[in-house]
Each structure stands twice: as structure tokens, then as C-alpha cells.
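pinned: reference chain
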Amino acid sequence: MKKISLMLCLIAGFSAPTFAQGDAEQGKAKSAVCGACHGIDGNSAIPMNPKLAGQHAGYLVKQLKEFKLASQTGGKEGRNNAVMNGMAAALSEQDMLDLAAYFASQEMTAGEAPEDVVEAGKKLYVGGDLERGITACIACHGPKGNGTSLSGFPDISGQHAQYIEAQLKAFRSGDRANSLNGMMGDIAKKMTDEDIRVISGYLAGLH
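pinned: its C-alpha cells
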């Protein structure tokens, strides 16, 4: 199972889209409105809002495009979020590229994992759960949770636990369905609330 999952990740990586380059300086100038929720440098102080600092530019562009698509289709396509749909609606592709370049150039602040989740979280992250068909996170996101820009898998290390937990539950329920080849939905559907709690807390301290 682990070998199959790793192969899927590698295959998906070769089919990931490539993006033109953005201008980080222009992105900084355009990012003022983003700072209220995500922090001036992309390090959100609000646990339910993701840190954008250090995230792969291609991944950020993909999310912005999908928020915009959701705004254009009434949430029937793309990634639906009441706040972000409106924010992305007026962005041009160059705006997205510039914003992504800026936030990707910033350094994410380190998080901390609660002691009570470290052991169970590491076990799930590194080994998954073969009996329940839960793929090890490490297969796609790497030993430190950094993902890769080529594959399209995001950097999830140091991310707010509350945000990760909310996203995993959204993937599980189907409210969010924009992961590469639907992989995250397939995985999250097999996870319990406790699985999600421990892996989210573990990722907060992984860096």
C-alpha cells in the first residue's frame, strides 16, 4: 500500500501544472488587504486562517484560481469559501502570480506540537494505517512536511493545527474537493476525529 501510494504521488507530480513567474515586489504592494487575515508577511496570527509564508507559489496560485472559479460558479466548481471567493474574484492571473511570489518568498514562523499528540501523530504521519487504508502523509509531503513545488503538494509543516483540522474535516465531508486527483478526500474519509486531531497538532510542530 505504501509503495502504491508513493508511486501515485510521484506520477501526480509529473503531471502537475507549471506557472509563469510572479513579481514578489509587486505582490508585496498588492498584499495589503491580505494582511488583515493572513498577516503582513503571511504568518497569520489567527489559528483558523492559514499561514501563507513559505508556501509553494504554484500551490497558492492554484488555490486563488479555484476560489475565483467558485465565485464565478456560485460555489459549484473550484474551492468554495465565502470570504476568499470575494477576495479572489477581482484578481487577474498576474495579481495571483505576484501575490504567490511574495508570500512564497517569506519565511514561515515555527509552530509547536502539543506533547500529547507527538507520538500518535508521528506514527500516523510516517506510517499511515495499513489496516484502515490511510496513506502515510510522508509519502507526498515528505519527511518535514514541506511537499514540493514540482508535485503540487503543499508545505503543511508548521501550519496552524486548527486550520489543518478544519481542512481535513472539509475534505472528509466533501465540502472541499480540490486536492490533486481527489486524494485528500479519499484519505480523510478514513480518518476519525481523533486521527485528525493528532495529525493536525503534530504538523503544527513539524519543521
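why pinned: The chain is about 50% helix and 0% strand. The radius of gyration is 16 Å.
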